[in-house]
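Notebook entry, structure prediction.
Reason for the run: the old model in the group folder had no record of what sequence produced it. Starting over properly, with the input documented here first.
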Amino acid sequence: MSANKQANVKIPELLDYVTLQTLLGRDELEAAAKDFFDRVAEPAEEVLAKAGLKASELDQIELIGGGVRIPKVVEALNKALGREDLGVHLNGDEAMCFGSAFIASNSSSAFKVKQVFLTQRPDYEVHMKISPLRDEDALTEEDQKAEGVEEDEIIKYNQEIRLFNTTDYLGKSKGLSMNYNRDMKLDFFKVTKEGTEEALELLDTFHLDDLKS
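New structure, fully documented this time:
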């Protein structure tokens, strides 16, 4: 219903040889999908907030994807961004396909193609906390010295590592090497900002048993 305000809906054999056939109006569709339309502008507003920009500071905004053919979507974006000049110069479906293909080729080592300089960065930092599975195994540096462990062989049993930053790119991998001789627990945290304070949100936990130094 991008051009028409009404459309015939026909679903053959919907239930026990009964065919559904009705006339659906654009107003009915928009009312039924109100919760979705209310969220249309959120990604655009989030991007502007992260970039520290206002929509009025952008020279041009181009819409892509099938949503550009839905009048309510364009109306919601116009209202949220305070502009009436949103561009629809690209074939939205083709642009999405090309963009997805470029990101896939950049992220995969299986493709032998010319590098496309397109980078997508993580939305948040990821921290990793390393600790022994059993509390009694968390020996301090003093405990280890008391047991006769040499200075260069002392193990830090509790560690927190900033694994990925927002300046990294999606698909990036990192290798870590360490000395550890206890069963360990790995906690991965999403780092969120609350004003000037950092908050950690647990993403996942892994247990590694029967480790050897």
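Summary: The helical segments are 26-32, 34-37, 42-51, 71-81, 92-107, 141-146.
The old model has been moved to the deprecated folder.
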